[in-house]
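From the shared-data thread, chain only:
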Amino acid sequence: MKVFVDSDYDKLAQCIVVYPCNLQIGGNNTTKQQIDKKVASNQYNNLINALSDYGIKLHFFDLNDSSSQVFSRDIGFVIQDILFISHMTLPDRQCEIDGLIEFVHKYNIKHHIMQNCAEGGDILVNHNKIFIGQGNRTCEKAVTEINEVLSANNMSFELIKVYFETSKIHLDCVFDILDKDTCIISEDIFNSQDVVKHFSKIIEAPRTELDSLAINIISLDNITHLCSSESFTQALQKQGFNTIYINFSEIIKASG
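Structure, as tokens:
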């Protein structure tokens, strides 16, 4: 099997998913509400159906003991034809990459296993530019490692470090890319001037949208997106995007 990502808003053909069977309340959940696993499963099924209806092939991974396994975005990222397998920061999440390692070997996928801490939610690709979150899940040494791997494969990219409020966990919770010229940004990015100069159209997400993970969209292609906030969905629609609201509220209680 070959993988290829030129940008995070390319037409999505295949993705890896894991059912939310082991969800637990996340540290960022200030309400400490209990998770209704039946509701969470129903919401996840709605996501699966939305992806399937769009013609996306889904690869379901087996469950392990990690309560965060449903957040499969974090366990890897693809740049061009290389699948990078994450090095998880939290020790109890490191087991989540085991299924991905088996997957790349089974399908003979070109890959690199990260030696330094790096998680998929911190890596956003926009053609020849890669935005790498510098919170507390992806370290500066990982930026160097990624650059070395790309250089060894004769690939030239501009790597942009993005510093942000670490309580938001991953870069894609405070910054995302809709198309070549358009990004979503929030005030929780500390060096926004280094980011916005790469885009001609900037959509600012209000702080009130961050708790619903409105910025953390799922791009099906460069105009079609899934969004977890009803109000932000409407805002993106007014900007000309085919944005579809999908309720993740129960899963978000687990901080992802």
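DSSP finds six helices and 14 strands in the chain.
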